[in-house]
Automatic annotation (TrEMBL):
Annotated source species: Roseivirga seohaensis subsp. aquiponti
Designated name of the protein: TraD/TraG TraM recognition site domain-containing protein
Chief localization: membrane
PANTHER family, per database record: CONJUGATIVE TRANSFER: DNA TRANSPORT (PTHR37937)
Upper classification of the organism: Bacteria, Pseudomonadati, Bacteroidota, Cytophagia, Cytophagales
Subcellular location field: Cell membrane
Length: 508
């Protein structure tokens, strides 16, 4: 169809978003598709019902409306819970399970360098995923995202990874974790570059050189290439079609002049940082088996988005540890990037796609998640993040202004549900979001002649005090399986359009 046909299919994308996603229980207020694209945050103590009631209600609403979804599992039992939701909502045919037993593979480097569309093959896309892995590793192991000194080493690591990928591509070699590691392990140090050029000059010189010297140089060079993948790749480039180009000169200068001449201590730190980033892909495990080789088209984020599929990424953190964090980071970053490239006008029956993450603190990236959430609405991505309290997010935001960074992310999650909680910081934050109002405060006192004096004054008090969150129902039999939460969203009015919040009940 031509241009006019496409406009007829989508006369107004914004009008599509006016549809109701779900009615908030015990209220007359609806959450529209547009509302859900502004992001949803659910907090609550362990056992508060935040996942089993609130998360379930929202997740099933998305499934019933035919949304595609990407779901990350933090706990082992999570996948079975989603299996039940999907079956109840009649979406079994749309389900794709990505776990250790599924047989699916997602070589993220191959995907980023070979995918369709603008930007395909850009080294920076693959580089960003690897740097996100470095960030997540630091968060998982130390609880922060680095200080200023670590940022210096991050930039050095970024250059090393970028130049390694570029070197392999110039040699027309496969860009894989395994090949990248071989490059770094065998790269030139100290006088290696000088020795390489001397041997090359002697072995292939047209000048009058003693034949024995020339033959020995050729033999030494051949043996070196046989034992060093780096030398082999350098030789491919120098004898290849790209030699002499500006890009080739920059890459060779880095490896033969810059990196080779960095001090031993500095080089060792940079290489060790790289090894720490890729080591998990070398030994036996899910990263080597399912993220280093092979690429199933079913897992391509574009296929999930356009096909409205439901992908369950089932590598529980509690079971696979850091490997699970890496697995989630790899796919989440690729998915977020694909969403940013999404062309809604080219889709038939476009719908939002959900990004659903329980135990969000285990998957949060301090930088990329904040940037993504700021523009998620334009890509029609409905993010639902569940965590116990906001201190969980402070903890993973690094040493530099962690609260400001966390609040920046939280501020872009407009729809908020606060279940029962004893976390003071979260409760006070929720109370401040709802705000304060003027109330009449009455007081009485007795004078020296036992005269009773009464007075009234106006005082500015919380609409909902922080301690109130400790009294909300937490489900189970003792609460008749009812879970209470305070719901708040800027621009929404509740209780006969007179209040900016509501205390609502979900069935567990």
């Amino acid at each position: 169809m031509g241009l006019f046909g496409r406009n007829k299919e989508h006369p107004n994308l914004e009008k599509i978003l006016d549809q109701e996603l779900y009615r908030v229980p015990t209220t007359d207020t609806s959450i529209s598709w547009a509302d859900c694209l502004e992001g949803t945050l659910i907090t609550g103590a362990t056992g508060s019902g935040k996942t089993s009631a609130i998360g379930k209600y929202i997740g099933q609403a998305m499934l019933k409306k035919g949304f595609g979804m990407v779901i990350f599992c933090a706990k082992k039992e999570e996948r079975e819970r989603w299996d039940a939701y999907i079956e109840d909502c009649g979406r079994t045919e749309d389900k794709i399970l990505f776990n250790k037993s599924s047989g699916f593979k997602f070589n993220f480097l191959k995907y980023e360098l070979e995918r369709a569309g603008d930007g395909s093959g850009d080294v920076l896309n693959a580089l960003n995923i690897l740097m996100n892995l470095n960030e997540q590793s630091r968060i998982y192991q130390s609880g922060n995202s680095g200080n200023k000194d670590e940022r210096f080493w991050d930039e050095s690591l970024r250059r090393l990874i970028s130049r390694t990928i570029a070197l392999l591509r110039l040699a027309d070699e496969e860009v894989s974790i395994y090949n990248m590691r071989k490059i770094v392990v065998n790269c030139f140090r100290d006088e290696d570059a000088k020795r390489y050029f001397n041997l090359t000059k002697l072995a292939f010189s047209n000048e009058q050189i003693d034949k024995r010297v020339k033959d020995q140089a050729f033999q030494d060079l051949t043996e070196w290439k046989a034992s060093s993948y780096f030398v082999e790749v350098i030789d491919m480039i120098i004898s290849g079609p790209y030699y002499g180009s500006e890009e080739t000169d920059i890459i060779l200068d880095y490896w033969l002049k810059e990196f080779a001449n960095i001090s031993e201590k500095t080089t060792s730190i940079i290489i060790e940082s790289f090894m720490g980033c890729v080591e998990a892909f070398i030994g036996n495990g899910i990263l080597k088996e399912q993220f280093s080789q092979g690429l199933n088209k079913e897992l391509a984020p574009e296929s999930i988005i356009k096909g409205k599929k439901i992908l369950i990424v089932d590598f529980p953190v509690k079971e696979f540890g850091l490997s699970a964090i890496y697995a989630a980071t790899i796919y989440k970053t690729a998915f977020q990037n694909a969403c940013e490239r999404r062309n809604l006008t080219a889709e038939v029956d476009p719908k939002p796609i959900g990004l659903f993450i329980d135990e969000y603190q285990s998957f949060c990236n301090p930088v990329s998640d904040s940037l993504f959430q700021a523009t998620a609405r334009s890509s029609w991505v409905a993010c639902v993040y569940i965590t116990q309290n906001i201190n969980n997010l402070f903890f993973v935001m690094g040493d530099s202004q962690p609260q400001a960074r966390a609040y920046s992310l939280l501020g872009n999650l407009n729809l908020k549900y606060f279940a029962n909680n004893a976390d003071i910081t979260t409760n006070e934050w929720a109370s401040n979001l709802v705000g304060k109002h003027w109330i009449d405060v009455y007081s009485s006192s007795y004078g020296k002649d036992d005269d009773l004096t009464k007075s009234k004054s106006m005082q500015f008090h919380y609409k909902v005090t922080p301690d109130h969150f400790t009294t909300l129902k937490t489900g189970r039999k003792e609460n008749n399986n009812k879970v209470q939460a305070l719901v708040f969203k800027p621009g929404k009015l509740w209780d006969d359009k007179d209040s900016n919040f509501a205390i609502v009940e979900f069935k567990q």
